[in-house]
Amino acid sequence: MNASFLRRGAGASATDARDLRRTLLLTLGGLLVAVYILAPFCWLLLTSFMHEKDALSVPPQWIPKNPTFSNYMTFLDPAGTRAIVGSRAAEQTFPGMVNSFIAASGTAALNLFLGTLAGYSLARFHFRGRGSLLGLYLGSRMLPGIALIVPLYLTIKNFGLLDHLSALIVTYVSFTLPFTIWLLKNYFQTIPRSLEEAAFMDGCSWPQMMWRVLLPAAFPGLIAAGMFAFMTAWNDYLFAVILTSTTAAKTLPVVVAGFATDVTTERTLMATSGVLAIIPPLVLAFLFQRLIVQGLTSGAVKD
Amino acid sequence: MTRAAAAATRGRAKAGAIGYDRPLFAWMLNAPALIAIFLLAGYPIIQSVWISLHKYNLKRPQRFDFIGLGNFADILNAPEFWSSLWITVKFTLLVVTIVTVLGVAIALLLNQPFRGRGVVRTLILLPWAIPPVVNGLMWQWIYDSKIGALNGVLVALGILTEYRGWLSDPTSALLALVFADVWNVLPLAVILLLAALQKIPGELYESARMDGAGPLQLFWYVTFPWLAQTLLVVLILQTLSAIRAFDVIYVLTAGGPGTATTTLTWLTYLTTFENLDFGLGNAYALTVSVITLGFALVYFRVLYRRGDFET
Questions:
Q1: Which of A26, A126, A193 is facing B109, going by the closest CB pair?
Q2: Which range marks the domain in which residue B243 is found?
Q3: A252 CA: distance to closest CA in chain B (Å)
Q4: Looking at CB atoms within 10 Å, which of B9, B225, B229, B280 has the fewest?
């Protein structure tokens, strides 16, 4: 009895040691991932708080010696006292941000509307041609943007919609929609049919049932799909640079790239515009983090 | 879904108030999406095929001569096509392999309980929110030969004795591009894989452990089968995005030094928008499309064989 007690004691302390080692390894792993993700971004962030002279110093100043908000002030007041090279690009940053936001939100909204209709029918109905439709949607996702850009440019020009946000939105919808449909179809399939049948029993029409029962139940899936569409639109450069030309429709990546290719621009201002370009999608991503993973858990992979 | 199960579903559906057997309604629901995709992908691709069959350079816009498959013959005879194809293959293989391995590793890590996991799970989304243009800009400074942070860190750690031009050497430029792109696209892989991991029932691990399975066996016999389908989805999405990578190349290397990072997509862009050769450019674009579709078909065959893709 005594011996077995001892054995158990030894076994427990061995497990404790293993648990401790495991916890240490996991924490170390988490730390490594955090450093890998944060280090490059921090460099950008720090540069945006530096004076140009400090940003160009060798070796690099890991902590700015004279941190400054002047770069951010330049964007708030481009016509202000600080005469700088590239102030035109600075002026374009806030209109660019508004344009990006409209384009990305419009893309997400239109995606969710069209994707809900198509996704619902693919999730619930078994009809002739359903398989071909799925194949078609997936196939259209395979076309690289560069293959569509010339004809799209010519068509949009014919409609007189160059430099219009609406043209940008419909373009983004065309290549985000297939993924949205696929995601929403899978999410709708995880929602029990009994839910909507009960709504019909209560006398709901189809649109009422969708609005009051199915869509609220599919909220995480909608958020995940909407975010993917939003990010794609927000991040795009290729279509935006070809289809827009003035602040009427120029999006933020175009403005930032304009900075980047202008050799006279101050590096710190470029860094600041980069940071500004990241804030809105970052806020959304952090805000919806849990819902996105939840939406994908049920939606991305079907049982 | 088996035929019997489908018939059962249909029977149940008929019993319900809506009836899930209304093909007309189903098609009506798909009509808006179909119209959008036809107008914005179908029609342009037909137009692109038409243009690719012509000699059409914007420097001489009045000439639009039909030359059949002449542009495609030119492409197959062009050494720059074959070299850019090889670079595209190298770039894509490297990015997809690194993203998949890192993605699985990080997703497995973030699925384990440890202090600060929530913070890391949120942090991992950060690169996703960074537009590739900004990403390219950020890495350009990190790699900078005179004032770059990478040189600064490596010299400070004593690994390098002097600053190096990472983007001026052909091999290191391609690798630099790969690492910059990997950092940007990694979050998507991680969140998709993490979502899949969270669906695995915990009992499976318990019973496997009861049977004496070690960590490697647990991964291979329990985790991997549940992850396989999502892995394929990740492979498809990453392959597509690597083949199409454009913004990051535009900002970071512009295809250089020389043609060391000139991928097919970049060559298509140069032909179309620098040389203004729309005929040849469209032929290049279609070639990229065919190659992408080829990749997709291979992946789909695997998915189809596993029976995961339908329904």
A1: A26
A2: 50-306
A3: 9
A4: B225
Query: Would B21 be classed as within a structural domain?
Result: no
Helix (H, G, I), strand (E, B) or coil at B65: strand
Where is B66: in which H helix or E strand?
Answer: strand B65-66
In Å, how far are A139, A245, B198, B267 from B116, measured between CA atoms? Answer: 41, 45, 18, 45
CA end-to-end distance (rounded Å), chain B? 7
**CATH, residue B177:** 1.10.3720.10
Using CA atoms, how far residue A66 sits from A46, A52, A187, A267, B21, in Å, is 11, 11, 51, 16, 70
Give dist(CA B198, CA A293) in Å, integer.
Answer: 9
Q: Are B119 and A34 an interchain contact pair (Cβ–Cβ within 8 Å)? A: yes
Q: What is the ipTM of this complex?
A: 0.83
Q: Where are the domains of chain A?
A: 2-75, 79-299
Taking the Cβ of residue A258 and every Cβ of chain B, the question of whether any pair is shorter than 8 Å is answered with no
Question: Residue B87, CB half-sphere, CA atoms under 13 Å: how many?
Answer: 29
Which amino acid, one-letter code, is at B9? T
- Residue closest to B103 by CA, chosen among B230, B190, B225, B231: B190
Overall domain count for chain B: 1
Per residue in B233-270, pLDDT tens? 888 889 988 998 898 999 888 887 888 899 999 999 99
A27 interaction partners in chain B (CB closer than 8 Å): 114-116
B11 lies in some domain? no
Closest CA to B258 of B179, B168, B145: B168
Residue B38 lies in a domain: no
Question: Long-range contact list for A209-217, CB < 8 A, 24+ apart?
Answer: A210/A116, A210/A120, A214/A120, A214/A188, A215/A116, A217/A191
Encode pLDDT of B59-92 as tens digits: 887 788 888 888 898 889 889 999 999 999 999 9
Tell me whether residue B160 is in a domain: yes
